[in-house]
Amino acid sequence: MPPKTPSRTKQTPSEPQRPSFPPPLKANDIVAEFLTRKIGIDLSHTIVAYDKRVQKLLDKAEISWGVQYELARGITLGLWNWDQVGSKVGKLKGMDAAVAYRVKNIILDLPLQGRPDLTLWEEFDREQLAILENCERGLGLKGEWKGAPDWYGGQIQQIARVVKEDNGYQIQLDIPEKRRSHRLARYLGSRRIIQLRVPDQLVLNEQQSVNEYLSQKFILCGRVYVPLHAKDSSVYMVETNEEWDERQPGLWCGDQYRKSFADIIAWHNPLDLNRKQPISKWATRFALTLSNSYPVLIFEEENILLIDDIYALDWSKVGKAPAEKTMTDGCGLINAAAAREIATKMGQSIRMTAIQGRLFGGKGLWIIHPTDNDPEPKIWIRNSQSKIVYNYPLDRAHRILDLLSISGPPTSTSLSRQSIVNLAHNGIPHDVLVTLMVDGLTDEVKPLMEWNGPHAMIALWNTVNRLGNVSGTRLQRSTAGLSRALGLTGREWGHDDVGMTDKAAALKEALEELAKPTYTGRSEYSGLPLGMNETALEMIQSGFRPEKAPFLRDKLRYITREKITSTVEKYQIPLPQSLTAFVVPDPLGILEEGQVYYRSSQAMINPDTQTAFNVVTGDVLVGRYPVRLPSDIQKMRAVDIPELLHYSDVIVVSTKGTFSPASLLSGGDYDGDELFLIREAALVEPFKNKPLTEMPVNLQKDNFEGHVESVDAFAERVMSLSPREAQTAFQQILLLGLNDSKVGLYSKFHDYAVFRYSYADHRAVRMAYMFNILLDSSKTGLRLKPGIFERDRGQFGREIPDHNPPTTKPFILHSLLLAGTNAGHELLRQYDEISGIKNFTAADLDLKTPFNLASDHARKVSQELKINAFSEELSLIKKHVEAAFDAFKTACAKSDNPSPQKQRNKPRREKKDSMLVAAQLYARDIPGVLLIRNVEEVKASYAYHLSSGTFAFNVAFRQICDIKAHADPRGVAPSIRPFDEAKAITSQFQKFLKRNDGNK
Known about the structure:
It is an enzyme of class 2 (transferase). By secondary structure, this protein is α+β, with helices and mostly antiparallel strands. The longest helix is centred in the C-terminal third of the chain and has 26 residues, at 869-894.
């Protein structure tokens, strides 16, 4: 595409005006009458966990909420009954940090094991004190609170799950988590919200009965929780101020500050002021208050302003502009003063260009205002961003900018199956894509086999760290809910994967997890990391070498194999020169159609000239996932426009023309969508643009049904029903997000249609648009007509074969699968044939030394001093370790998958740890051992004596690594865990390693 001469005529935004929002609509009689009903009260109910007699005892003793939750959790899991709880109330008094982690031990009379992590329970106490203070401290921006700097609330998630029973459904409580925060939890308090996870399969097979079950109120410890919103296979329930079964509100715990269900709705999404919206879209607006976010800045009411959108030149200005004609859809402005304050709060040395967040009734992205230099923070919300209307004066919560994410330096990207199929259709030769995949795979995997040289282990450590993103994972663990706001992760993945866990499985896991309030990423007993890459990394830094340590060598082979498998099966092709970033509309209006601007805040390197540059120029490919249509990737011209110098780390697109560039790319907008920008010449040069692939005529009419019912119309319809029927109907509206839209299935249908007919075939195009419509069905209320899904499944619900039929032309994914598989087999063969490792089975003498020394000492004392105490204690240690070893062997024999190589990068609750019993037995104290001082070291060494394979590493990983490190003649650098997990190899040292490798 030839470059276009940019116009230098700036198109500055229209001057902001205040006040900006249209006057709120007045409620008509029918909505007002509906609101007079006691919303969320006249519903049927289900008991989660409650006993009237015991609850009175708990309230009288002022048992803290975290303790009560743990008691109820044990009840729902069948670990104890209410009579057992009632008999132990006297022992349950105290703050959560002092008692909650001991609930299991108190009720079941079990000894404590290990050192508890009190982080979660301390947060429970902190939030409870903020509730009692009742000054909106939980919303944040009020400084330090009870030892936590810059504190804000809502950081605890009370998790529950729906379990299918023979006679219906049951709710089981899970261990609370401390991983995120959202506005609703900050406003109400974490304890007032329960996130109920509903298995996908349950929704698929029993949607109607599940919805009926969830259209109730739920009773937990005498408190009433009512479902408010369904999102990502989770239902969010809020505690209301309704009293249950004569329970009296407790002033000691802040019950007097609870709110009614109607008040909660009116606070976030008032029905009367938003009554002209479709009721289905109104219901989706609760998702805005549930987004994982971080409160960063509060604006004065007069500094929250409205600015109109920029529209396509050919828009008729009749009615509401469609998204494709709204050139700034979802993107507002924020002044430099506000951006600087946010950057300071986030610990950024350079202010960001774009901020994704939630403010007032608006959502989306905000970029720096091009002309405003006011020292007071200001923000402009565009019409396309405004989703909820409120009355003035504004609630403090609605004046706080809740940050979701920020723009940052470029991150490299990879092609996936969707973009690969698009590129192949649009002119990229198959052999180019095959070469990129094989070369990329080789470049990723080969460093795992480079073990020779004075710094080889440091380079290997760095490779393992990079491939497994260990440093990033550790940072996400330590930053909890801030990972997205800090730019460590992208958009929310959606719902957690929920398995259909039956009651027996829940019981089995309950005891081992009941006292684990936080996820540390490693076994609390052995210290063994749960991630394979982190395990290998810690062994390498302890002094183990793969050619002499079979356990490490097996881990590295597994990492190698998994990298090959994921690359080949997911069709990942790394593109080191390409990047991803937020897409934003040109704030100056000087880019021409087909032009983009990208400037990195950090220097990039041209691999051909080895020179640094910041601004991308020349032809590039831009696209946005999901990529399903020929026009979803476009070739554009990257230009250097000096006037846009301050807009770094974002992809700026033109606001000129007749069609929004973001909308052209898979129907995107500017509310936080990310584009990928491809620079590799082998992909850019042969690419041929395709015009917009339009939706087939009458597709929506022929395939979908759905009455677009306004809030007004809904209220009028249900007023003729009984109060309970009306409220149940209202609950079902709130639960519209919990539906089997079949989005995933239509994604697969599209994949098959592309393979069977071709990418641009009308059947593939239809499947692409069916997918897109279903993706937004929770907002639109559209549902498939009867028979449509069955017809489509019959035609497209098939698996793509592993190879091409001989009569058809090659399919690009088949070509890549064949080439990647062959390359992977060759790389694994090379790994297995690394010189000197095949037959190396010698034991590690360093690991045997502590036990040998202890044995020699015991023998010497017995022989020379006639004292047998040391030998007797050594026998106790041996018996203790041997008992754990027997449990380990039993677990291995019973396990369907005993190999430690199958360890996955998942939280413990997502995998069955067959070695848990052995680790627990091993970790117990050994009564009677008083003279031997280095008991843990001797235990670990003897465990290695018993089995130099996997046993010692599984039950004593921390100690084994410590023994190995201290045996290294180069010395040990002592470090506590937080410092160790914060370290990384500097870029300068990486350059040294590369130079050193090059001179070998």
